[in-house]
Design brief:
alpha+beta; Non-ribosomal Peptide Synthetase Peptidyl Carrier Protein, Chain A; seven-stranded mixed sheet; globular
């Protein structure tokens, strides 16, 4: 295999596997025709090999006494090489951001750069990839991670056709001014203030470059967005969402509290911003999703016979309709969900309200179909929608024990469906980045080898973000990837182990006193717990055990959902593990979750000093950093 995941590869095998070889000069020439010219010290010699699953650039620059240790021509070649894939493409890519660079030594004048093509990510007009640089023997020398480049179009080039291989071009804008939604109005105002112009001068549909905003200003505007939403954003945010309209569509569902006031101010007055019968704002909120799930749940519960006989006592409800005992707590939460949506009375008598009667009729309110369509059109909600719909549709069979919900959530025993639905969205990515930055900063500033333990690491969603950040600061002394499932440990070793001698693997039952001490021969400096602590019976006992496993001054970095969601209730909530907890006094009613203030109180009670680096009012999830008591 010419492209292993470790630190070296077989250069000769790569050359032999090449399906196409393109002189680097041809790639430079294509870029020059697009207006992007590389000359002098910015230009290398060589050729690009297209191989199965990878691009390999065989590079060389003149050797001389004053040659820099990290020659810019070699580094820029990583951005230039993907151009060999764009046959006939009317544009080139301009590097705008690098997430990290690390090297074991200076780049030799003759080196080989490799790019994993399966990991190339395109978003809007942004292309993001990582480049590994090897010497002629194939030994890894350096790595550029998260190299983001912006598409620069050839002047006068026609819009790209849908068959084009990388990115779409927006159609030409009509001359009339567009209707501007409430969320777009908010963004347009703050951007205009930063640029020193009138909001009306900014067409929300136009790309930033069409508005006369250059690359440096685009990068600078990210801080303006961060100040608006109160949370750190990717430096390439505006290259991924290339107009005010696109940016508003991305931000509004993720930060509904920021846009709520503007949405209410324009509801019913701006054409196209409300559904005629339902009154929902164009910008989707978690409450919209909860209300839609509540309506779908109501329809399925009526299929079991609920609400057909008029008002009836809540006590004994599950038994009367054949709901198995393990779902009694779930049914109680479903009643709370219906009451919160205004569909059922909240009390000891189960009965529908007039709104509930109307909602249960699929033909009664066209706004339900409109809301479902808008959920499906939004990338954040769409990733979860089909899974939730299938779970809701199966409720009569699942609740009566006729069908296990695991058939839906884990078909064939695979985790792929749940991973696709709940990982990889911007909220999860942002929280994982916060975890990674927090832990990497601790390692960088510690001045000694650091031992890190990750509890319940599972499929490695957080691990995959944390490890590169640690590599960039020289790595920890030890990183223990732990889980109760041996299968996860084996997969983690295959996925993360090559090239990382500091990785260790083991089982850590955080509910068992002394389990950590039996795993390692000393305390941890950092413990990471990402979406795992809630899935325990007794959080007081768990935090006692974690505190015992940490050295004084050590960090517990928690990443947890802190807000109840109907979408979670209708997926994870149908699993037995959702209801394991015995300490209901700590949890949000009807869920195993704690609010962020609840976590803060509990951690303080166990001797931790608490900070909340990602704190945002009404946030769905948070990263909470707790420092163990005592001297560091």
């Amino acid at each position: 295999e010419p492209f292993p995941q470790g630190g070296s590869f077989d250069v000769a095998a790569a050359r032999a596997a090449a399906t196409r070889r393109t002189p680097l000069s041809d790639v430079y020439a294509a870029d020059a025709r697009a207006g992007q010219v590389y000359t002098g010290a910015a230009r290398a010699d060589g050729e690009v090999w297209e191989c199965p699953g990878a691009l390999v650039a065989d590079l060389a620059v003149p050797e001389h006494a004053d040659r820099p240790a990290f020659d810019p021509a070699l580094l820029l070649a990583g951005a230039v090489a993907p151009g060999s894939l764009r046959t006939g493409e009317p544009g080139s890519y301009l590097p705008v951001h690098v997430a990290s660079f690390r090297a074991s030594r200076a780049l030799p004048a003759r080196c080989v750069a490799t790019i994993d093509t399966s990991a190339i990510r395109s978003s809007g007009e942004l292309l993001t990839l990582s480049v590994r640089f090897h010497d002629e023997r194939g030994e890894l020398v350096a790595e550029l991670e998260g190299l983001s480049s912006k598409l620069v179009r050839t002047p006068g080039a026609p819009p790209r056709t849908p068959a084009s291989p990388v990115l779409e071009t927006a159609p030409s804008l009509p001359p009339e001014r567009p209707e501007v939604g409430a969320e777009e109005t908010v963004l347009r105002a703050v951007i205009a203030e930063r640029l020193g112009c009138a909001p009306e001068e900014l067409d929300v549909r136009a790309g930033y470059f069409e508005l006369g905003i250059d690359s440096a200003q685009v990068l600078d505007l990210v801080s303006t967005v961060e100040a608006l939403v109160g949370e750190k954003q990717s430096p390439t945010l505006l290259f991924e969402h290339t107009s005010i309209r696109d940016l508003a569509a991305h931000l509004a569902p993720r930060y509904p509290h920021v846009f709520a006031a503007a949405t209410r101010a324009t509801a019913g007055t701006t054409t196209g911003t409300t559904a005629e019968a339902g009154g929902w704002a164009e910008g989707l909120t978690p409450e919209d999703a909860d209300r839609w799930v509540a309506r779908e749940t109501l329809v399925r519960l009526r299929e079991l016979g609920l609400f057909a006989a008029g008002p009836e006592p809540k006590e004994g409800l599950a038994a009367r309709y054949g709901v198995v005992a393990k779902y009694e707590r779930w049914l109680d939460e479903a009643m709370r969900l219906l009451a919160a949506a205004g569909f059922a009375a909240d009390g000891e008598v189960v009965t529908l309200t007039e709104a509930g009667v109307r909602a249960a009729d699929p033909a009664a309110d066209p706004a339900w179909a409109d809301l479902r369509g808008r959920l499906a059109a939004d990338s954040y909600w769409a990733s979860q929608l089909s899974l939730v719909e299938e779970c809701v549709a199966a409720l009569p069979a699942v609740l009566t024990g006729a069908r296990p919900v695991t058939e839906i959530l884990f078909p064939g025993g695979s985790l792929d469906r749940m991973t696709t639905a709940y990982q990889g969205n911007s909220i999860a990515d942002g929280l994982n980045r916060t975890v990674a930055e927090t832990v990497a900063a601790f390692v960088r500033d510690s001045g000694r080898p650091v031992r890190i333990g990750e509890i319940g690491a599972g499929t490695g969603g957080t691990t995959a973000v944390v490890l590169p950040a640690l590599d960039a600061v020289g790595g920890p002394g030890e990183y223990w990837f732990t889980d109760l499932s041996p299968a996860f440990l084996t997969k983690a070793e295959d996925r993360f182990g090559p090239g990382r001698s500091y990785l260790r693997y083991g089982r850590w039952d955080v509910e068992r006193p002394g389990a950590a001490e039996a795993l390692v021969d000393g305390p941890f400096d950092v413990v990471i717990a990402s979406n795992v602590l809630h899935a325990t019976r007794d959080l007081r006992r768990v935090l006692t055990n974690v505190a015992a496993a940490l050295r004084p001054g050590g960090l517990l970095v928690i990443n947890e959902v802190t807000r109840k969601s109907a979408l979670l209730t209708l997926t994870f909530g149908l699993l037995d593990g959702w209801w394991l907890y015995d300490d209901e006094d700590l949890r949000i009613p009807g869920a195993p979750l704690l609010s962020a203030p609840g976590w803060e109180r509990l951690l303080c009670d166990h001797g931790f000093a608490v900070s909340r680096p990602s704190a945002t009012d009404g946030a769905f999830a948070e990263v909470i950093v707790a420092t163990a008591g005592g001297a560091g």
